[in-house]
């Protein structure tokens, strides 16, 4: 029994090490897919018709304008997820509520030893790997090796954890990726169908292969991303994360579920002008503590639930 536990721990450590090692490889892979798609759509299939005039030129302009607009938003959102710290626990952070005494003042040093060793207190959570207290909705990431505020998951594609400070950017990345890959799939569909028709197909072997590959890749990404997008829309509507959705299967009511609109605002903010941009207004950052990842509004009648 001890041996199997040791082997499992070693395998998990090895898996986490592999994920850390992927690093820039995944970013290069993403940019590679973007490059192949760009070559196929812009340089091979819709760039040349621009000078032809007529209806074909009009269609090419529409496709290229929409393609570049979505690509810009996709890359902006993607690198916002990659480069934004998902949120770590501040140094020397401590819980501010002593539920047993009904006080809201910061706990004194003498209180921490008892709280740290008392697993029955649902309001105080402690990470023994980081040797620190954990704020509400915070979880330890074995890949990053630290606790992440409102951790959703560690994403290989963005080489980063998805947490409180970059979850919105991740959702926008999924959203714009789905729109872009759907556009590419539809725009390349006539060229893909031409492969199976009789007659000569214009283009070199290289351009034809690139078109075929781009269509297949974008169709696959569109379908897979759609599934993830639907899943995360349901999570946002319930104001929960992937980890919390798994943990609260036995919880009939969720203390952070404030209604769909307020749940949406907890992630995207209240400023509608920023809903589709990877960023927040200064006003939202000032007056919404949830965007900082340390405090979250909840239902008062369910405040005794575990974080």
From TrEMBL:
Residues 124-248 form the Palmitoyltransferase DHHC domain. Pfam families: DHHC (PF01529). Its EC number is 2.3.1.225. It is a multi-pass membrane protein. It comes from the Eukaryota. The chain crosses the membrane at residues 12-38, 58-79, 169-196, 208-230. GO terms for molecular function: protein-cysteine S-palmitoyltransferase activity. Keywords: Acyltransferase, Membrane, Transferase, Transmembrane, Transmembrane helix. Its main location: membrane. It is found in: Endomembrane system. It catalyses: L-cysteinyl-[protein] + hexadecanoyl-CoA = S-hexadecanoyl-L-cysteinyl-[protein] + CoA. Residues 100-119 are annotated as: Disordered. One of its GO terms (cellular component) is endomembrane system. The DHHC domain is required for palmitoyltransferase activity. PANTHER family: PALMITOYLTRANSFERASE ZDHHC16. Belongs to the DHHC palmitoyltransferase family. This is S-acyltransferase.
């Amino acid at each position: 029994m001890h041996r199997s536990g040791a082997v499992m721990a070693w395998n998990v450590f090895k898996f986490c090490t592999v994920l850390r090692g992927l690093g820039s490889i995944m970013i290069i892979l993403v940019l590679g897919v973007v490059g192949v798609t760009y070559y196929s759509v812009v340089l091979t299939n819709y760039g040349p018709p621009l000078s032809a005039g007529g209806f074909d030129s009009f269609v090419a302009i529409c496709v290229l304008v929409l393609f570049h607009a979505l690509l810009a938003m996709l890359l902006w959102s993607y690198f916002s997820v990659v480069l934004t710290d998902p949120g770590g626990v501040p140094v020397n952070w401590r819980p501010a509520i002593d539920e047993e005494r009904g006080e809201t003042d910061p706990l004194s040093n003498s209180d921490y030893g008892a709280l740290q060793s008392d697993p029955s207190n649902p309001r105080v959570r402690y990470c023994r790997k980081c040797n620190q207290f954990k704020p509400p909705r915070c979880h330890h990431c074995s890949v990053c090796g630290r606790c992440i505020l409102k951790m959703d998951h560690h994403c290989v594609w963005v080489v980063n954890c998805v947490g409180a400070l970059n979850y919105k950017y991740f959702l926008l990345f999924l959203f714009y990726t789905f729109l872009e890959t759907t556009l590419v799939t539809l725009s390349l569909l006539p060229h893909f169908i031409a492969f199976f028709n009789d007659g000569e197909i214009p283009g070199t072997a290289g351009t034809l292969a690139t078109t075929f590959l781009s269509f297949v890749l974008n169709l696959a990404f569109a379908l897979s991303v759609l599934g993830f997008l639907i899943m995360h829309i349901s999570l946002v509507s319930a104001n929960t994360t992937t980890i919390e959705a798994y943990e609260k299967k036995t919880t009939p009511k969720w203390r952070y579920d404030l209604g769909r609109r307020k749940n949406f605002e907890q992630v995207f903010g209240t400023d509608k002008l920023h809903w589709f941009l990877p960023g927040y207004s200064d006003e939202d950052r000032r007056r919404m503590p949830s965007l900082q990842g340390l405090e979250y509004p909840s239902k008062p009648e369910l405040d005794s639930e575990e974080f």
